Write the structure tokens for this entry.
Amino acid sequence: MTFQKTSVALAVSLALGCVGNAHADQASDMQAKLDALQKEIQELQAQIGALRKKQEQAAPAAAAAPAKAPANEVKPGKELVFKAGGGEVQLYGHADVSLDDQTNGMTGFIHNGLPVTGHNGWVPDVSSNLSFFGVRGNRAVSDDLKGVFQFETEIAYAATPGASDQAADTTAQKFELGSRNSFVGLQSEEYGAIKLGKTDTPYKTATARLDPFASTPGDYNAIMGNSGGDNRSEFDFRAPHSVWYESPNIQGVRANFLVSPGQNRSTDTGLYAQGEPDCSGGNSTGGLNGNAGQPTSCEDGSFATLYSFDLTYESGPLYATVAYELHKDVNRIGDEIVPGTIGIRDESAYKLGVQYTFPTKTTLNVEVERLQRDAITDSLDERTHTATWLALTQGLTPFDDLNVGWAHVGRTPGQPVEGVEDKFGNPAPAGSSNNEANLYTIGLKHRFVDKRTTAYLTYSSLVNGYWAHYSLGAGGHGLPTRNYVGDKFIGGCQTGGNCGPPFSGNNAEAVSFGLTYDF
């Protein structure tokens, strides 16, 4: 029994010893694992600390560095503007196409005792008018200075591109790139801008906003800025090879000054200005400078240097402007019968324009203009006169306007002998005569909800005095009526036709429905 007790006690002791040894081994292994894990945690904490320190050191530099913009990003807004090359480039344009029905008012006119030939009543047409496309851009070169550029060209939506028989000249290609306002320059918000290229003169742009019928047959340039009638508004001009300054806005006041040097080495500006495809003033009718055709010299209004200036003020509903332009050494030898009686003299123009918008949504436009030639012989001077323009725009709805306009031009001191014929075929005499004219226009304009598309309907009537010969649609509309009979073209008459020179005393009329779109 004693042996059995002893054996049992010995077995228990051995078992307990084995269990204790097992627990000791497990505890030792666990401690080793905990030590290894602690070491890994410490290493990870060190790595995180080092990474955090690097991020803290890099944060100021990252904040200072601007984010990189995507290449050629489109700028938000209604205009098509791209951010490119550290600057901006904009694509823009204006489409104006109309369906017209026009009459030159010369049915029944006589030349050499016989009725004139051609379709001289109402003739329908589709006209592109002054539609254009352009690209402009700018890039900052310092804190308050930008380099700027623009090139713009007329677009023929309806007609086939090329030299037009209705243009004031037939040698310039108005549908070539850069045919309209195009330039390069520097611009500052504080000091204004200086630009080189070609552009509408300050004299032209000063009152452009006063004409709600711009580019329609009733465009006010049928009379305003037009020194002698026909299809040429000498003082509504885009001046090539020019340099000009545009002032900043100083409490509503702006000023612009432009010079277009004559750059003409020929005697009496008898040839084209250097680098140009036509006579100064756009009065070419064929090849010159060695090319086949006519004229043989620039003797119908070609000039040397041009100076143009305007001063404008705008505040709330009021806009007011004064403008002046001078054409040096204007060659009118082509109007002479007796040499030396008309010759080469300066021509100038000045005007005052006011626009005011009343709370009744009524906008009143008033302009008074004086054109003058330093004439040799007053009785042959058809250039010097006073003209007025009165236009009213009445808003009918947020989308619709009613427009009415009236332009009047007074008599001149004289007129060139045999420059035109009356409706009976009699040549014009020298001296003061009834060469007054009146332009009457009425129209409706509708703006669609997109504010970029419009529709318009106009009726225009140009009533020439007995010896007046102004042209409906001159200076803006794609197809002016001119004061030619149907078979006449610039410099000649269709074979078998009876044309004569330009006629006076006609009543040209036009009805026009058009659509415009801007982008």
In short: Helices lie at 2-64, 202-206. Residues 1-16, 288-295 have pLDDT under 50 and may be disordered. The first helix runs from residue 2 to 64. Residues 286 and 292 are 8 Å apart (CA to CA).
